[in-house]
């Protein structure tokens, strides 16, 4: 019962996020189009008569126009075969090569690891910290 509630809640929340993102994208796109049309009309109004185009643009809408859901221009979505091609030829090989590089680097580091080198590096780090602390202590003592 708990898993069902968590799943249903997750589906509802993700649906709400998707709806909100879609609404934001639609409103931002309408706002950008409105801004572009206004700017284009403003620039064309400033041109001399012989440079203006023969076809005049319609006046920009008064605000961002909300189209009904079925009348919204749809972005072309890639087909399943294009997604599959991208996944198999581009994304997965890139991820696999990065993963292999990291694992190979980790294995190389483990192979080159020796206790003697680790002891030397820890001893050197300790000596450096000790020297810094003693120098700062000596400078405070002199003041």
TrEMBL record:
<feature type="compositionally biased region" description="Pro residues">
    <location>
        <begin position="57"/>
        <end position="71"/>
    </location>
</feature>
<protein>
    <submittedName>
        <fullName>2726_t:CDS:1</fullName>
    </submittedName>
</protein>
<feature type="region of interest" description="Disordered">
    <location>
        <begin position="48"/>
        <end position="77"/>
    </location>
</feature>
């Amino acid at each position: 019962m708990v898993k069902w509630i968590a799943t249903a809640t997750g589906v509802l929340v993700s649906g709400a996020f998707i709806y909100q993102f879609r609404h934001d994208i639609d409103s931002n796109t309408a706002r950008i189009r409105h801004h572009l049309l206004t700017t284009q009309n403003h620039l064309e109004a400033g041109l001399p008569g012989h440079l203006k185009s023969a076809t005049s643009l319609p006046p920009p809408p008064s605000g961002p126009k909300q189209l009904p859901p079925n009348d919204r221009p749809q972005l072309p979505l890639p087909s399943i075969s294009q997604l599959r091609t991208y996944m198999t030829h581009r994304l997965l090989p890139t991820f696999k090569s990065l993963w292999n590089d990291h694992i190979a680097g980790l294995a190389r580091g483990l192979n080159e690891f020796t206790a003697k080198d680790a002891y030397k590096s820890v001893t050197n780090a300790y000596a450096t910290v000790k020297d810094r602390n003693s120098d700062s202590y000596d400078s405070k003592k002199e003041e």
